[in-house]
Structures are given as C-alpha cells and as structure tokens.
C-alpha cells in the first residue's frame, strides 16, 4: 500500500537483510533502539547466503586490521552475541606458497605486520605446512598461517543473527524494497513496497544495491559489482580442517561440517544487477578447478554438484564504506565489503550502534570514509 | 530382488563386485547387475550410512552410485558392464587418498 | 567458431529421433546426444537388442513400433553421441548461439550449436512415503527398464502400488513373461472416474488407446491379481531392506503384508531440470500437477534458440512426442532460414492436426489419474530429500517467505547429487500448503549447473578456448 497508509516510527531503520544489516539491527536494538529492517527479497538472499563464511584476519588489508582483530575476538565469543556458535570452527587459515618467491612475499608481509605491532600471522615451512594440511601437494614450500582464524556456517549464522535480532525486538520486513526516500522534519521517511517506515537514523547495509540507496540520500559513491563463483562438491570424509588460500592463485578451499568441499577464490561469473541474476562461466571456473587440483591432487575425482555466483558490491580500493554519510544527517553506511565482509559482521554492527548512540566511534574507521571514494570520482 | 530368466545374446563376461566375481552380459547396465546380486544395494549414504539400491534406473535419483574401476560416485544405471570391471559399493563419505 | 546450421538435439526418444531425422532430411547438420548407450529413450529402451526376443514380444506392439524411428535415425546421417551427458548450456558469444558442454567416459568437451532442442522426456513423479528409500522399493518405470534392458523380472511375487497407465502396462508385460504379482494397490482416488467422465467423449477420438487400457485391466482381472482400490496411504518398513508394506484404503483400516519388493508409480512429469536451469519461463499445469516450459507453437522456450519437444513439453505419450519433434524440426528449419514462414506452416499443418488427435485422451487421463493429495503431504517423518535425508517435518518447520530457495539454503533439501529432481515438487507442495498458496505461485528451486556432476579434475582439464567477450 502506498500513500495514505500510516508510517511506522522507529529509532532506526536498517536497509538490507544480509548479515551486516542483521548485525547492525541487533546491536542497535540491544542498545535500546526500536529498530525496523527492510529487505527487498528475503533474509540472506544475496552475498550473505552465498558466502564461503571465512573468518579470517589472514591477508587482510592493513587498514582493516584494527577492526578485524576486534571482530575476531567477538567471533571467539559469538555465542555471547547471538546465542549460537554459528558453526564457527577454529582450525586456522593458511595461505600456501608454491615457490620460494611467493614464500618470500609472505615473509615480507609478516615482517611488515610485526613492525606495525601485529602478531596474528606467522610463516611456516614445508614440514609444518604438511603437518597442518596433510593432503597438500608436495611442491608447496610453505605458508602464512593465522592459527586463531577459521570459518563458520553461513546459513546457521544468518539464522542465528536473525533470531537474535527478532528476540531483541527488531521488526523484519521481507519482500520490502525501498522505493523512495524523503526528509521529513528530523526524520527520514522510507517508502517500501509494503510499508512506510520513518526514523532519524537509517543504516545503509544494502549490499550490491547500497550505491543506489546512498544516491537517494545524496551520497554519490561509485560501486562495482562482483559475481564470484563458488563450487560445492559431494560430501567426502574429513579431508582438511583449516581454510586454505593461495599466494599465487585465486583460490579459497575449505571443507564444511557436512563434508562438502567449498571452492572459490574470486573467479568471476557474469551478472545482471537489474534482473538480480548471475550466470556461471565454466571456462573461467576452470582456473579454480586447476588451482584446487594443483594444491590438492587427491580431489581430482571429486564431483562438483553445484556452482553458483553470488552478487556482491565492490569498491574501487576493495575497502568497505563504514561511517556516517557526509551530507545526510542520521544516515550510517555499512557496505562495499568487496567479497571479504563476513568476518567483520560482529564489529561493524557494534560500530553502527555506537555511531547511532553517541555520534562517534572509538574504532578506527577513517580509512572507510565514503568521502575517499567520492573524492576519487571528482578527481577522475 | 530381481532375476534374469531372459539373458541377452551378448557374450557373458565377469565383473568383480566387492571382491566377489559375478557373471554379467557384455554391455548390460551395471545397476541391473547390482539389483540381482545380494545384498542388492549400491551404497550407504554419506549422511546416515543408510543402504540405497538403484531406484529410478534412468539417471535422476543418484541412489545407484558406486565406485567403478576406481572412479567414485558413478551412476551405475548409466554404466555399461565391461569384462573385468571392478565395482565397490560405497560406504558413507568417500575417503580421499592422502 | 560456431558454424551456422548446427543443431544439437538432446535425447534420443521418440521426439528427439523424429526431430533429428526430419532436420537431416532438410540437410541441416544435427548432432544427437543421449546419456544412454543406444537410441530409444525410455519407452523404446534397448529396442534394437530386443528385436525377435521373448522380452521384445512380451513388451508388445507399442514397443515394437519404435523400430521404424530407430532405423530412420540410423539412416539419417545424423551425428550420434551416445553415453554422453549434457552438463551445461551456455550462451555463445553471438546472438542465439549455444555452447553445449558434454561429458563422456573419456572426459569433457564442448559443441557449439545455433539451436538446441531438448527432448529429454519425462521422469516419474516423486512420491515420497515412509520407507521409500529402502532397498526393495523401486519405481515401476525402473522395473520396466530392467525388463527392457536386462530381461530381468522380480524374483518373487511383487507388490505394485500406484496409479496410471504404466503400472497396468507393466503388470501385463510381467505376467506375459511369467512373472508373479502379489497384489496391486491402486491409489487412484475413487472419485476420479466421475470427475473424468465429462472428458470421455473427447477422449473417444483415441478409442484405440482407451481400448488398450481396458485390455490391460482385463488381463489383470483374468490373472486373479489381488487388487485393492482407492488406497490412500502406503508405507514400507524394514531394517536394512524392505520387509513389510502397510497400506490403508481410504476410509478403511491399515493392512500390513510381508514384501521383499515394492514397485511404485504415481504418474510422470516433464523433466524440467534443464529448462529451469536455463531460466526459461514455466507454467504451472494444474491439470497435470506439474510445471512445464512455456513454449510457442514451434516448441521454442522463452530463451531464443532453445526448443523443447516430447514429454518435456507436457505429458502426451510417444505419438504426441514424435509429432512435437516433427513440428519443432520444421520450426527450427524456419528459424535457420531453410523454410519460409509459409512453407513451414504448410508442412506443419498435418502434424498439428495429428498432434491434436494424439492429445485427445489427455484431459480424460489426467483427470482419471489426478494424483491423490497424500502424495504432496507425506507423513512428518518421511524423508523428502533423499540425497540429504531431510524429512517433511524439517521442511515444514523451515517454511518461510523466501520460498523454496530460502528453504533449500536452510535445510539443504535439494542440495545433494540429484539437485532437487526427487524432492523439488514435494518441497513446493509442502510450502504451498503451509502458505495457503499453490505450487505455481510458490515456484521451484533455482537449479544450478552443472546439470550432471562433473569432477574437479575433469573441469581442470577441459580443453576449450575462453570465449572472447
């Protein structure tokens, strides 16, 4: 219904029913706010539902490390946040080097981190690598390891965050995309397909559609789209415990609780944002299969049961946008995680809640200011 | 479960199922052989290790999966028998060699 | 890279064979692909090998009638690829061209094509009931395939449960081969015949088909096969394999019988896996309780250059499949510019008339064998997703606004090797019930490639050039 129906008033409206939206809504509600969440499709429909759910600090851009390390501590007590362990297992994340040049590159990174005071990554030799990953190909010479990293179950995480948000009083509107935005007195009015919501605070966690939503508030930010492909295989007996990536190839490789292997790494499929559709490109995907079989020769005979490509937003510098809108009062952005947002879910929700309550945050979010991208666009 | 009173003209060949030698006709459907060879099932599921025998015989149920000549999870209803073929019924989640 | 005039036909049943032969007669290059080792599809499975055998004789005249089609195919000059599965169809890089990805025992390869004609036929309607996953429970279609392809029959008197023409046909064939039947549990709801009667006059145009069915019933009665009518529920029990079958006639008490083999069948539905994966538009056919791809008069789907012929277009039987194959071939020839609009229309006209006649008994049969509601609402502990062993209860608990795909994500139903072929319909029906809606509104799983499993090693060694964007 539109026009003539009464707007529902909240303290905060979150746009986007993925994990970042749910986390923001949950933590806003816990800090005492009345929260409504608008989701155009259904909870977890896009990036969150297609995530490999890697929980890592390994290999992160340095700018993300302060908040990522805080988020990692939150993951280690995720039950305290959402009353569920989300299937989070801590078997480490490993980035494999296939030759000495790659290994030297990993050592340089660890040295750089140590110089900055970070100790969460270490370099291991071939023997230790084989101990951590028994089936690894024999030509691999070493790896960078973050032992307190791991992976979770994306759907379990979605359900846990949803349940916790609703238990905290968040009202979730599914099938409710935002059509229009108006400024009314000291509030924003968001007209969605089946409801009209008003609040002084609006959180933009709209994923691949966040750029469009930002524009409705007057924030122009160029946002690209990714359609990273993922392979799920048949179930196999326990094979690897850590999550594996590769210094010289696009690869992410892990095994779920059920025994399926999840293989990704960023090989791109094709997408149509308007139609919300993606298409798999198997010729391109070949690279992921080659990477997996190069590092783990014994998976060559394992059957791929399904492949998909999930829609995600990416920014030019592959860093997220987190923080207040430069021009729209009360609007807080949390988007553009560029394929590595899962691990940041707990802390970003805390940052949003803090910003909404106090107008500022103790966390280091300067590198994620929206202005940095807008400036680039002006300069271009 | 099933018997074969009407053997085809094709020559008789030997295949090995879980170490047991079994007669079959050259080129016949492997799942058909499984359905006349006790204990009749092709695999035990990776989820609960429940036994499953071939069900649809036309490639749409995937219950007939077995390891054929070292290749795991083969749809036996789409596999013609060849002389000397080795078949292993699958049990639970397959082990990958390390 | 794609040469014009290349058509790939998927499926060597009545529709595929007719289309391939007709295309060849117009000098169009055709490759026919089928995962079976020989032509015939399911209805004429293993036809060439059964010529002049006891099995061939027992299978009857409808089976033997396929010989002409197979011979025509063999003589058509069509490129034949048996033992070959299609695991993906991708848009080529110029308009309406396709890349057809194939898998054989030797590995993967890819065929470029201007047009793809899907003639993959039908599959049996999934009908979950407690114990249906036990060894000892086999579909009637599977039992008939065993008869056709391996000359195999049940070792002991067999129980048959279900509805439709196929169980009747199979039982007469089995009796002709000396097999024994312990009993037929006819699940056709008693009220269906009355509901079907208004369609009977139209069906009489195909009185020969109806007479066949009556003939089968007569054979069964003459053979004193115990028949229980209007069976509402069935269940199979046993520890590692089937030991007993329990059935309950509607309004009556449950009866349990010992059984080692139970054959089940509740009709056939178009195989929609590929058209769903390709994002084609589908209609919900309430008369046949199934989804079918939306097709124009030539069999083209909502995706340009992708056609469907045969039972995959809607259940119609072998003759209707053959005619749809002929019509699709003419439509494809017209699309490729080999026939003018007028010529194609003219040549299609007799096939269209014959198709109308061949489909005449459908409304009657569809009403007579309309599935009983219990199939779509199995008992809570019934395994609905055979692959991932998800029960009806688990599915109902997870039902939500996100439809079958959200439910798939949360319960894993539809994520196993069969990718929803055996559970998709049940999930849609269960959701429809919990949302007070219809399967047509609820929709179906998103089907993801590969259309058939492909190993990591096979994909890693696929030798095809990257497409130039």
Give an overview of the whole structure:
The complex is a heterotrimer of chains A (380), B (98) and C (469). Chain A has 380 residues and is an alpha/beta fold. Chain A has helices spanning 19-30, 65-75, 78-82, 100-115, 126-132, 154-167, 210-216, 282-295, 345-358, 371-379; strands at residues 8-9, 12-15, 35-38, 54-55, 93-97, 122-125, 142-146, 150-151, 171-173, 178-184, 187-192, 196-199, 201-204, 224-235, 243-246, 252-255, 260-264, 270-272, 277-279, 303-314, 321-324, 331-335. In chain A, strands 6-7-5-15-16-17-14-20 form an 8-stranded mixed beta sheet. In chain A, α2 crosses α9. The longest helix of chain A is centred in the N-terminal third of the chain and has 16 residues, at 100-115. Chain A is globular and about 65 Å long. Chain A starts with 7 loop residues before the first strand and ends with a helix. In chain B, strands 2, 3, 4, 5, 6, 7 and 8 form a 7-stranded mixed beta sheet that branches. Chain B has a domain at 27-91: Ubiquitin-like (UB roll) (Roll), CATH 3.10.20. By secondary structure, chain B is mostly beta strands. Chain C has 3 domains: 6-122 and 269-339, FAD/NAD(P)-binding domain (3-Layer(bba) Sandwich), CATH 3.50.50.60; 126-266, 3-Layer(bba) Sandwich (FAD/NAD(P)-binding domain); 377-442, Arc Repressor Mutant, subunit A, CATH 1.10.10. Chain C contains 18 helices and 24 strands. In chain C, a hairpin with a 5-residue loop joins β15 and β16 (255-258). Chain C starts with 5 loop residues before the first strand and ends in a 9-residue tail after the last helix. β20 of chain A pairs antiparallel with β24 (454-455) of chain C, so a sheet runs across the interface.
